[in-house]
Amino acid sequence: MCLFGCGGGGGNKPTPVPPASATSAIVYMGSGGCDALHPDCKDDAAAEHVIQAVELTKNGTVKPRPDLAKDIEGMPVWMATREPQTKTQKRCFFVTRADTDDLVAFVADTKGALAGPVSTVKSGGRTPVFAKATADGNVLLVANYNAPDGTKVSDGAAASSFQIDEDCTLQLVDTKYHNGSSVNPDRQGGAHVHSFVPARGGLAYACDLGMDQIFTYKVASNGRLTELARTATKAGVGPRHLVQHPTKDILYVVTEMGESVLVYEQLADGKLNLVETQSLVPSGASLEGSASAEIEILPDGSALFATNRGKLGSVTMFTIQADGSLKQRRQIEQPFGTSGGVPRGTALAFGGTLLLAADQDTSVVVGYDIAKDGSMTSSTINFTSGVPPHPAAFGMLPISSTSTEVVV
């Protein structure tokens, strides 16, 4: 059933829960440079351009893998994968280089090593900060954030699509530019496309932080984009990233400046209906000096996780109830120690039994064990070796002892 009624957001056909058979994984980490919430931070461009790797096992061991590191000669703020969906498709690994406005594609082997790059293409706009492949593995969707506010650049903020060839090379198919602004001149002086997420039924949703809008697109089989609808959020909240429930027509959106999770019912023709707002800020606390970042959902749709970075650094867990609504179950404050920290990058591993979070300030990665009932407890995983300075993104390549092609 859908939250407060059923809509036309791609139907309720269940999404298969990926297997949890992987017993180890290669975890790549990319730097996002210094976060604006920490003005005293020092950048190290040479080190920040290297994607570092560790080998992680399901029983909690971590082994740095410097032999797998890749210098991509740019800022690797986001990474995405394409697991083979056919016998002829190769396993792909994509990196967005935000400072050079392009995408780099690698072929990944069954042990997680990267070969290439096999393709380097312009991102279709400026400052690509997000990418994700469609379920069939044929199209890569990319969010181009655009230049900082106050910079006079036209046609930079955009939602773009790329054909993924069988050998992982990329071909630009379509770009839809966003133009507009909202009420916060320091953060919303122009359009800022922060994510572009594929969903069921050939739909995709682009969160525009600068315009305070969520764009709904139809993605054709060849990657062509058609805008279907726009949904305005409350002014000034800045929608950042979103996830879709695996079986219900519901979207969960994390807002960067609003520091909240918005729950939307998917309606016909791409329209969205807001049904719930959950704050990530403790009662009575100020939003100043903090900003929300990432959102994750378990493969079975039982729990949701969202992060806040800065003074109110935290990881918040919500139970997803039967109707798709949220109930806050736990909020871990200061996940990296005595300071709030900057948990900008997170990732789920091993079928959703482990949540990783990286501190963009101190360059430490911590883990949380996720139980079958969705409860979250600190794991033994806590490491700095093999981590780039100011980590902001994860790229996960599972290794299985029983299969050469594992999808998580």
Structural class: mainly beta
Low confidence ranges: 1-20, 402-408
CATH class: Mainly Beta
Sheet bearing the most strands, described? 5 strands, antiparallel
CATH superfamily: YVTN repeat-like/Quinoprotein amine dehydrogenase
Give the termini distance in whole angstroms. 25 Å
**Count of runs of 4 or more consecutive helical residues:** 1
**Second CATH tier, the architecture:** 7 Propeller
What pattern of helices and strands is seen along the backbone? EHEEEEEEEEEEEEEEEEEEEEEEEEEEEE
Share of residues in helices: under 10%
From the alpha carbons, calculate the radius of gyration and give it in angstroms. Answer: 19 Å
Let me know the number of strands. 29
Shape: globular
Question: Any idea how many domains?
Answer: 1
